[in-house]
Design goal:
alpha+beta; eight-stranded mixed β-sheet; three-stranded antiparallel β-sheet
Length: 356
């Protein structure tokens, strides 16, 4: 099916949806049809612009072939013809990007997990810096950022920090953040001024719902234990902490943030569903593109994806060879989009190359 046939099919479905939405229907069906219509709207708008450009090119060609026409009109037609010929590939590219298969997880909320890696206390301090960077970025997007669990070092660092982030298209914008983030800077405790290198791992998981993942109770081992660390009077007095093991996959999640064992179990199950959903997603993605090296978004935490160099005020994303000398703006969340947008564009281009 060529591009014009695809656009004709999309336009026909768009018109069908408009007709269906004009008829009385139940709320669930209306919501489903409205969502599909919303997804097709930008494609239809670009299709109209594409069709108009093709029609205008034909009209300009007719004017150029008419030797009896006015010279000024012929000059205007020639100018318009070459302008539209230049515009056409841009419109085609936009439409092809819009026609790419959607990642069903893109519209989902996300669970953010950050853990200190190599580098001791400095790695934990960097993990805390990254956590705050994403918190500020979420605030700039109007997303809700809820801290689920933090294991701190007592002097400002985080061994582990988990948050849930909810809002519009959260996962689509954060999914390429998964991987090893490396920092190069002089620790405050370093008297000689020597630059240290340490790292933290970031994992961004799409938040799964009950309808996405069905978990059989018999596949779970649930252990309860006494909470430790900060937590008030309930610490070490009740077995409120929960550890859940998914036996078929070996996935383990734990939660001790809440005083209630029930609430801790609920949070742990939410994380487990998200982990299993992400595993399922990755398996499907690997099946679809087994022979393609995915340059971005692989989620492989053994890969170093980004370096934050404080002495030079530099951030480098190694997957797309992008370097920004805006470290402060990236760390406060205001310039993070300048890394995220090129990552999304690179992913689109590589997927487009796979189907062309």
């Amino acid at each position: 099916m060529n591009l014009e046939e695809k656009l004709s099919s999309v336009t026909a479905r768009y018109e069908e949806l408009e007709a269906l939405l004009a008829e009385p229907t139940d709320g669930q069906t209306f919501s489903r049809l409205s969502k599909e219509l919303g997804e097709l709207t930008p494609i239809v708008e670009e299709a109209k612009a594409y069709s108009k450009a093709l029609k205008d090119i034909e009209e300009a060609e007719l004017l150029l072939k008419d030797s009896s026409g006015d010279e000024e009109m012929r000059n205007l037609a020639e100018e318009e013809y070459y302008r539209l010929k230049h515009l056409l590939p841009e419109l085609e590219h936009k439409i092809k990007i819009l026609l790419l298969p959607k990642d069903e997880a893109d519209t989902k909320n996300a669970i953010l997990e950050i853990r200190a890696g190599t580098g001791g206390e400095e790695a934990a301090l960097f993990a805390a810096d990254l956590f705050r960077m994403y918190e500020r970025y979420a605030a700039s997007k109007g997303w809700k950022f809820e801290i689920e669990e933090i294991s701190d070092t007592g002097i400002g660092g985080f061994k582990e920090a988990i948050a849930s982030i909810s809002g519009k298209d959260v996962f689509s914008r954060l999914k390429f953040e998964s991987g090893v983030h490396r920092v190069q800077r002089v620790p405050e405790t370093e008297a000689s001024g020597r630059i240290h290198t340490s790292a933290a791992t970031v994992a961004v998981l799409p938040e799964a719902e009950d309808v996405d993942i069905k978990i059989d109770e018999k596949d779970l081992r649930i252990d309860t234990y006494r909470a430790s660390g900060a937590g008030g009077q309930h610490v070490n007095k009740t077995d409120s902490a929960i550890r859940i093991t998914h036996i078929p996959t070996g996935c383990v999640v734990a939660c001790q943030e809440e005083r209630s064992q029930f609430k801790n179990k609920d949070k742990a199950m939410k994380r487990l569903r998200s982990m299993l959903y992400e595993m399922q997603r990755q398996e499907k993605d690997n099946e679809r593109s087994q022979n393609r090296k995915n340059q971005v978004g692989s989620g492989d935490r053994s890969e170093r994806i980004r370096t934050y160099n404080f002495p030079q005020g530099r951030v480098s994303d190694h997957r797309i060879n992008l370097t920004l000398y805006k470290l402060d703006a990236v760390m406060n969340g205001t310039a993070l989009d300048e890394i995220i947008e090129p990552l999304i564009a690179e992913d689109q281009l590589s997927r487009l190359a796979e189907i062309e």
